[in-house]
Structures are given as C-alpha cells and as structure tokens.
Amino acid sequence: MSAVPMNFESQPLDMNLWSQNHLARVEQALSQWVGDGAPAGLGDAMRYAVLDGGKRLRPLLVLAAYEAVCSGAPASAVVDDAALRAGLDEAALRAACAVELIHAYSLVHDDMPCMDNDVLRRGKPTVHVQFGEAQALLAGDALQAFAFELLTPDNTLIPAATQATLCRLLARAAGSAGMAGGQAIDLASVGVALTEDQLRQMHRLKTGALLQGSVLMGAACGHAVGEAYQALSDYGAAMGLAFQVVDDILDVVADSATLGKTAGKDAAADKPTYVSLLGLARAQAYAQELLAEAHAALARSGLPDTRALAALADMVVRRSH
Amino acid sequence: MSAVPMNFESQPLDMNLWSQNHLARVEQALSQWVGDGAPAGLGDAMRYAVLDGGKRLRPLLVLAAYEAVCSGAPASAVVDDAALRAGLDEAALRAACAVELIHAYSLVHDDMPCMDNDVLRRGKPTVHVQFGEAQALLAGDALQAFAFELLTPDNTLIPAATQATLCRLLARAAGSAGMAGGQAIDLASVGVALTEDQLRQMHRLKTGALLQGSVLMGAACGHAVGEAYQALSDYGAAMGLAFQVVDDILDVVADSATLGKTAGKDAAADKPTYVSLLGLARAQAYAQELLAEAHAALARSGLPDTRALAALADMVVRRSH
C-alpha cells in the first residue's frame, strides 16, 4: 500500500457498477433476513413490503458514507485489524438494511386508508390492499422492531459501542423528533399556509431525518469523528432536503406511470409543497443550490474518496421518479 | 456490610410500599420523557397513550429482576463501583420505561378499527377515538422508536454493551418472533380451532414475550449470567403465560367496569382462549400450576432476594383486572 493517499477524486467512478455491486449485497441480505422466523402471513406481508425493487437510496447512502470514512482512516486503526474491519463491514451492511426496513414500514403505514389511502406503490397494490389493513399495520410494526434486531445480532464482531450508536441514530431518525414527527406535522398542515421555514422543518423531519440518518449511520460504522463526521452530517442534511424538493417537483411534472405512484396528489390534497410555495422554477433552482451545498460539504470533509456520495446526491436531484 | 448473605426470603416484603416507591420513579420518568421534543399533536397523543394509570406490570418486572440480580452480585463487582452502579440503575429505569412504551404502542394499534376496534381502554376513550386514526397510528409508531431511543442516551454511564443487549432483547420481544408475531397468529386464529400447543405458542408470543423480555432486560441490567439468568428466563416464561391464562379467565368472569375494557370480547369474537379450550375450572388450575412453576424457578435461581418477583407473580395470578 502506498504511503501517499491516492487522489481518488481525479478518477471517474463507475457508478453503475458500484451501485450494482452494493445493491446485490443489500438485496441478498434483505431477502435472507426479512420475515425469517415470522408467522407465515406476517412474514409474507413483511417480505412483500420490503422486497419490491425500491431504489434502495438509503442503504446506498449508508454504504457510501461508510466507504468514504474508511477511505480516510489510518491503516493502523481499521484496515489492518481484520476482525474489527469484518465487524464494521457487517455493521454497515446491517445498518443499510435497517434503514431500508424503517423506510419500508413507513410506506406501509403511510399508504393505509387512515393516512394517504393509496392503493398503488411502485406499480403494485399496496400492502393493505394485498394483505388487509390489520396485517399491514402489524407488518409495519414488526419491520420497525426488526430494524433494531438487525443492528444487535448475537455472537457478532460488531463492537457493542457501534451497535448502541447505530440504534441511537436510527431511533432518533425514525421517531417523534424525526420521521414520525415530520409525518405528524404533515398531517396537521393540510390546507394550512406554511412559511418556507415551516415547510423546510416539516421536510427535514419527514424525509430528511432518515436520509441524513443513513449517512450518519454509515459514518458511525467507520468510526468517523470531528470534522469528517460534521461534514457528512451537513451533506446528509442538504441532500435530504434536496430529495424532498425534487419529490415536490416530480409530483407536478411527472406522470403516475413514471412515478409508480399517483402523481398530482399533493396539490389534490391541498398539501403545501415547495412548488406551491416557491413556484416550479424557484423550486428547481433551490434543488440545485442544495446539491451544491452537499458537494461543498463533501469537499470540506477531508475524506479522500467521496465519489459515491457525490454521485448519489447527483442522482437524488436528477432522478425522474 | 455483613460478609454473610442475609436471608431475605425469611423477612416479609412490604409489597405495597415497594410498588409505590418503584411506580413513583417510573411515572416520574415517563412523564418527563414521553412526548418531549415531539410536535404538539403527536406529543399529546403519545402522552395520552402512556400516562394513563396502567398497572405498569412490565416496568415493575424489570426493576424487580434487576434488584434480584443485584442482591446476589458480589459487592466488588457492582455495588462498590459507584459509577457502574449508577449506570446500571439508570439502565434499569430506562428499560422499565422502554418496555412500557412498547406495551402502550401495542395497545394503541390493537384498539384501532382495523384490529380490535375498541373505543374504551382503562375507562377512557381509546387514542384513535380521542385523536383520530392517523394520529393514533403515528403515535404508536413514534412510541416504538422512542423505546429504543430511551435505551441509548447520549453521555451516559450505561455501558455500551448493556445498551446493545437491552435493544436486542426489546427488539426480539416486540417483533415478528415476539409480540407482533403473536398478534399475527391471533388475527389468523379467529374462528379456528387451535390445539392447546398452538394456543400456548400464540400466547407465549403475543403477551408472554414482552413480559419475559421485561424480566430478561432487568436481569441484563444487573449483568446476570448462567443459572440465575436461565432461572429468571424460566420465571418470565411461566409468569408470562399465567398472565394470559388469567386474562382469558377474567374475560369470562369479570365485568367491563372492573376490567376497564369490554368484557366477554373473546367469546363474542370467536377467539380461542384457555377457557374455551380447557373450561373455566381447568384454566384456573392451570394458572395455579404456572404460578408454582414461576416460584420454583425463583427458588433455583440462587439469588438471595427474589421477594418482589415472587409477589409480582402472585399479583399476576390473583388480580381481578
């Protein structure tokens, strides 16, 4: 190994290949773990909710953040201790799956009749349409519990402190000061004129917290500290908000077939969005600003290889669904 | 301190005083923590669901198991290390509150129209009646996340390994191989003739897993190992199943005013119960057998003071609601 850090940034990353490789690991792990040991009907509903070809953005963020931190780790600290490295690799894969379980459970519950009452998700009948409301409610509940189970396996090389940190980050990202809190604000905001600050706060919690949490969990798996951790946190905040701004834009400009879910729903439901607040052109410009913020945060992280994180932020802003 | 262990068992425990003291700590902690930092509507629903005068059996089991283990710990290991002892005391209180949050969330979701459709709980309107279905769904989800947040505080004296173990035990007790799994079996069993083995398995998961999990979490806070841990696990299993047998009996023999919820529901819903399977007299005898099993497990734990655990098992079997 060269003593001089390589300048990774100057080399192009084959992001398709990177995504393929990492997605394959995540899909294989989810397929192996989800629903295992659950009673038949519940296990089927859990697997249906998770193994459905989502974009897996959150798992990819975990793995990209973990690799970015490892790229900057002193060889003596992590890379040369094979058992620790194996434990941290396992932690990153489990964290990647755990955030996806939280995301999947939130979609199952969001789609239920008492919430958004959606019958279509990623082009398929939603879980409550397929399995009934009671089973959908239980499947969501069980997926949330299973996320924490995945982070705390028996007989593992994952350091206990890493397990505890991952549970802490995930619980906060998912809970009343994170995703669930944002959904509650969303509930209360139908038909209400929000200021831009209020809208930003709602979105930071509702979707931003788990996206940022994914980055932080990856960073925690690599034992990131100090400036690098803070920069990745800033990256996660900007990218997470950009995701929601683009979601608001796509709800207006895309059709249901491309989205895999009902388009134009926010306007129909009289929900405040970035487009309704800023207009389409300013919303698009704001998404670009946030993307630039995300890139700037990566640049100041001091980490030698943040190419995958940079590419994921680009994907978030340039996606068509 | 005497070098000869005191024979605690020969001294009567004032269980009313013990419960009062421990309940006061749990109520104070729940009142301080639940809903803190949540958006207003969500926080109100979370607090309504939790701060409602439940029996707090699960928190008391955590604290009683923790104290039983501490009563047998070598002074050098735990009692004399003030910082460790403070951390473990805090862990036990947080674990006590965390299991209650899981219990509370399960009641909120269970009561919803797509599940049991109950409008009365502990003599008050259920959460979805009071706050609407969407808010009830979110409050349950947020309470589950908050349970894991409570177990993993920042800047704490709780050892990381204890935090990880508590998250592991709670996630398993709550998830698809525990409470949620039991509820799924329950859903599928309406109108179905179960064998006694199948009924036992359903109840072991549905209510037994979290009751046993409470005991195990208390034991883990005291760093119990080996025989003592196994005996407490056996105690938890017998006591947990006894709880459900008595629940089935009370559904038949008690009235709604005493229960604080609708009596006779299981029979009306054509749900299999211990009474429908064994008849009332044999179900009552079975509850006594399980109580004896629970006491026998405590006797072989080797722990000097299991009086509170013994009294809690008695309460479980002799309760009138």
Could you give a quick summary of the protein structure above?
By secondary structure, chain A is mostly helical.
List the helices and strands and how they pair.
The structure is a homodimer of 321-residue chains.
Chain A: H1 15-33, H2 40-50, H3 57-71, H4 82-110, E1 120-121, E2 124-125, H5 127-131, H6 133-150, H7 160-174, H8 179-188, H9 196-221, H10 226-253, H11 256-259, H12 265-268, H13 274-278, H14 280-299, H15 307-318
Antiparallel strand pairs in A: 1-2
Helix pairs in contact in A: 1-4, 2-6, 3-4, 3-9, 3-15, 4-6, 4-7, 4-9, 7-9, 8-9, 9-10, 10-14, 10-15, 14-15
Explain this structure to me?
- 2 copies of one chain form a homodimer.
- Chain A is mostly helical and 321 residues long.
- The first copy, chain A, has a single domain (12-318), classed as Farnesyl Diphosphate Synthase (Orthogonal Bundle), CATH 1.10.600.
- In chain A, 69% of the residues lie in helices and 1% in strands.
- Chain A contains 15 helices and 2 strands.
- Chain A has a two-stranded antiparallel sheet with strand order 1-2.
- At the A-B interface, α2, α4, α6, α7 and α8 of A face α2, α4, α6, α7 and α8 of B.
